[in-house]
Amino acid sequence: MKFHETPLKGAFLVEQEPRSDARGFFARAYCKDELAEIGADYEFVQANMSGNVSAGTLRGLHYQDETAPEAKFLRCIRGAVYDVIVDMRPDSPTRYQWYGVELSAENRNAILIPPLFAHAYVALTDGAEVFYQTSHAYAPGTEKGVRWDDPGIGIEWPCLVTDISDKDKAWPDLEI
After folding, report:
1. Of the listed 63, 82, 121, 132, which one is catalytic?
2. Looking at 62, 63, 121, 136, which residue is catalytic?
3. What is the rounded end-to-end Cα distance, in angstroms, of the chain?
């Protein structure tokens, strides 16, 4: 795997290194030892999948607070999504800054998201699916969120958001 650090310290775009022959390809999708080499020695304890009927479906921005901090390792396994992370770490020099990247079944890239980063994605294709591992089980009382269109963050979504849950619409704007 190749790790490309994003402008937000500790977050990485993860590129597979496929080995191909006449049968197709083989690539490592996850390696605990390789993650530890870049300082991301998370123990992933839960795996989740999320499917979306229509392009324009947005999920997020969510994170768990410091009482149940959750790292994520996420990839798109069908279709394409635009994935966004926002640094919510209180003492970080990049607090409230965001990074976005297209993840797709075709490019096979993944994103490694450190704890205390808000996360969201918008489906770019009908039927987009993501698979992700988390370093902490879902803990309802620790969930936090930020509005997907918070003007203080200024995320530039690449498509029209057409479907979003009432819960995600109701997250507050940050007081920056």
Report:
1. 132
2. 62
3. 37
